[in-house]
Design brief:
Helix content of chain A: 25-40%
Number of helices of chain A: 12
CATH class of chain B: Mainly Alpha
Radius of gyration of chain A: 23 Å
Largest sheet of chain A: 7 strands, mixed
Shape of chain B: globular
Distance between the termini of chain B: 47 Å
Order of helices and strands of chain B: HHHHHHHHHHHHHH
Oligomer: heterodimer
Low-confidence stretches of chain A: 1-52
Number of domains of chain A: 2
Number of strands of chain A: 15
CATH topology of the largest domain in chain A: Rossmann fold
Number of strands of chain B: 0
CATH architecture of chain B: Orthogonal Bundle
Largest sheet of chain B: none
Structural class of chain B: mainly alpha
Structural class of chain A: alpha/beta
Radius of gyration of chain B: 19 Å
CATH architecture of the largest domain in chain A: 3-Layer(aba) Sandwich
Strand content of chain B: under 5%
Mean pLDDT of chain A: 86
């Protein structure tokens, strides 16, 4: 290749990338959804806090949210987006809400967050699991900005991590699946083996086994948070393997629910209510309700009280606080199954029941949680590096 | 189990096959269009959007084809008219397709369509094994196979096929024969874009019935790579595409069987297989490469042929 050709190719590539980033900027804007109002409208908490003016996260004019996918994916990102709407309703009068969708889990995320900080954000919500390391990197450069990460198990000086114990409703949906399945074979379509995913697979399986001891869960990894073609193929593969209830841990949930319905099998949802997508086969699901938690986190930070608060670490909440909930039941779910599940839910709310009470055995029959032992949530997440007995499928070693 | 893998191979291979067939024609004219992925993406979005808007999957597929064609004209203008570097132009068109669809696709993410569903063919679909393996696909999948035969006949049994091949081998020959090489190239690029658009529409309208940003996930780039594997033959493109689809279906089936292997290693199988095949086939079939492509692929390959 001649030098001239090479220079043309470089230039064209640069033009291409410039075009791409321009279009990407149009496509995924960190839109200020509301212009800041006159300072007169500012609440007491923001104006009368000169003493904590230097506290991290205070003094900003905006709050940034980054999402790994589109805001209406019937899934994880839609749930997080709704949370950001709740924050906007409460704080939108004097803080701009900056949002960026489809932010990849790499250096691109750092650029997006840097850009939000330049626009005045002192609080940033990094809402995807893979946004943690980029957030920690940016946080090192901006000690005055508070980063809160959704799902992480690490925290630094100005990065906190929050999440919900979604495995609680997932366990209950496992009961529904175990009761309704005719073959006793359940399927789980998973993206990556991160701690939350393994907890969910285990909780689902334990729930199903609590009503059908012979129930098994076949796990298929797609190695992608959202590849509809692979998701479709995964559903067909599971159907061919005799599975009659499919659930998932993906970011975009719609394709799998629809494909299951077309294949005439049942589905259990994740992240958002998918019942309109599958009038016949929808059983129930687990979903997020981030609004209150997000708002409380923001309030704590703007009050200058973040340092030393519960959010300034690894924080988890669950059913009791309302951050996770069970999706509406589908038409096919019988009343006795509903009652069984609601009763179980009540024992969880009362703190009388924890699905991960030992003995919990892994796929090889090795006891991972000893008889009668209950681990606290953070420890449970850290130590769940296995799949429970009754799960068909291999973890990357 | 085997029949479900074969059926999965055809399903997963069909979108790649459409794009691959289009690219066979493009490369036969002496061009390489890496923008195929971009054409697939705009095809997927246009197909989904028009199907959602009109309720007609047929109109959707036609729209997808036209959208893919339109985007390929950008490549045609730069690569044929302006003689820009083809590989760089293709990449730029790919990212352009990415950006356009991200921008216009937002409101379609949560829409529902009926799309194209598998056909039940009397008798054929019910034959044990063979029916489940081959005859429970949708009409588009059969169309892709038929297109391969039609294109083979076109290339080797028609005058225009000869002109196309002449343009890709030695444009002087086509020129001496009274044909404008550039016009032939334009037609080939437009057809390639059209087929990639149909492949994209297949993905959104028939396969997944969904639109998600970036949903082609590299399948258009794989299609271009598979053209070499297929030795620039439409019939071998069928085999190449189904092999790629089969690797994907196989890795899911192995997982569902609980085979104790890393699912991530298994996910790499389709791509590793493509690479391995390129390595092997690239060596002994290089002599079938259209002469015109040697300028695109650089002097290294030209020298090794000589």
């Amino acid at each position: 290749m001649s030098m001239q050709q090479l220079s043309i190719s470089r230039r064209s590539v640069l033009v291409g990338f410039a075009a791409m980033s321009l279009l990407a900027a149009c496509a995924a804007p960190a839109t200020p959804t509301k212009a800041p109002d006159a300072p007169a409208a500012a609440p007491a908490s923001a104006t009368t806090a000169p003493a904590v003016a230097s506290a991290p996260g205070t003094g900003g004019t905006a709050i940034g949210f980054i999402f790994v996918g589109p805001k209406d994916d019937y899934g994880y990102n839609q749930a997080a987006y709704l949370g950001s709407k709740a924050v906007e309703d409460k704080f939108g009068k004097n803080l701009k809400i900056l949002r960026a969708e489809n932010v990849p889990e790499n250096e691109e995320a750092e650029r997006v967050m840097e850009n939000m900080i330049q626009q005045g954000a002192k609080i940033i919500f990094a809402t995807s699991y893979g946004h943690l390391d980029p957030a920690i990197n940016v946080a090192k450069r901006h000690p005055d900005v508070v980063f809160v990460h959704q799902g992480g198990a690490k925290h630094t000086a100005n990065v906190g991590a929050y999440f919900g114990t979604i495995w609680q409703p997932v366990y209950l949906s496992g009961i529904a699946a175990g009761k309704m399945s005719k073959t006793g074979k359940l399927g789980y379509i998973v993206a990556f083996p991160i701690p939350q995913t393994l907890l969910n697979i285990n909780a689902f399986t334990l729930g199903a086994q609590s009503v059908n001891p012979n129930a098994t869960t076949t796990v298929v990894f797609t190695a992608n948070w959202c590849d509809p073609a692979k998701q479709t193929e995964a559903v067909k593969t599971l159907v061919a393997a005799g599975v009659d209830v499919v659930t998932q841990h993906q970011d975009c949930a719609k394709t799998i629910v629809e494909a299951s319905e077309r294949a005439g099998i049942m589905s259990v949802g994740y992240h958002a209510d998918g019942s309109p997508l599958a009038p016949k086969g929808w059983l129930t699901g687990s979903q997020w309700n981030w609004g209150n938690l997000y708002s409380d986190i923001v309030q704590t930070i703007v009050d200058g009280k973040w340092v030393g608060s519960k959010y300034d670490a690894i924080y988890r909440e669950g059913f009791k606080e309302g951050v996770v909930e069970l999706s509406p039941f589908g038409a096919s779910v019988t009343d006795d199954v509903k009652k069984l599940i609601n009763d179980k839910k009540q024992t969880m709310l009362d703190g009388k029941f924890n699905p991960f009470t030992g003995p919990i055995k892994d796929q090889d029959g090795k006891v991972r949680i000893a008889d009668g032992v209950q681990l606290d949530t953070v420890k449970l997440e850290a130590e769940t590096t296995y799949l429970v007995q009754g799960v068909v499928g291999a973890l990357p070693k | 189990m085997l029949e479900s893998i074969i059926a999965g191979a055809i399903r997963a291979g069909t979108p790649v096959l459409f794009a691959c067939l289009g690219e066979v024609i493009v490369e036969r004219a002496g061009l390489v269009n890496l923008g195929t992925e971009g054409s697939m993406l705009v095809g997927a979005l246009a197909g989904f959007a028009i199907t959602a808007g009109t309720g007609s999957a047929l109109l959707g597929v036609i729209a997808g084809a036209l959208a893919g064609l339109l985007l390929s004209l950008v490549f045609g203008y730069l690569a044929i008219q302006r003689r820009a570097n083809q590989l760089a132009t293709g990449l730029a068109v790919l990212t352009l397709g990415n950006g356009i669809t991200a921008f216009f696709g937002r409101s379609f993410v949560n829409q529902q369509i009926h799309g194209i569903n598998p056909l039940h063919i009397p008798i054929l679909s019910d034959i044990p094994f063979v029916g489940a393996a081959f005859f429970q696909q949708d009409i588009m999948a059969y169309l892709a196979g038929i297109m391969a035969v039609v294109l083979w006949l076109f290339l080797y049994r028609t005058r225009w096929g000869l002109v196309l091949r002449a343009t890709g081998e030695r444009e002087e020959v086509a020129y001496a024969g009274g044909y404008s090489p550039n016009r032939v190239r334009w037609a080939a690029v437009a057809f390639g874009g059209l087929m990639a658009g149909v492949g994209g529409a297949y993905l959104s309208v028939a396969y997944t019935l969904n639109w998600i940003e970036g949903m082609t996930a590299g399948r258009g780039v794989v299609a271009v790579a598979l053209v070499i594997f297929a030795s620039w033959s439409p019939l071998q493109a069928v085999f190449a595409s189904y092999l790629f689809g089969g690797a994907q279906a196989l890795q899911l089936s192995l997982q569902a069987d609980g085979v104790d292997a890393s699912p991530f290693l298994l996910s790499m199988v389709p791509y590793l297989l493509t690479l391995a095949v390129l390595l092997v086939v690239g060596r002994w079939r290089r002599n079938v490469m259209p002469e015109g492509l040697k300028a695109v692929f650089g002097s290294a390959s030209a020298r090794s042929v000589a």
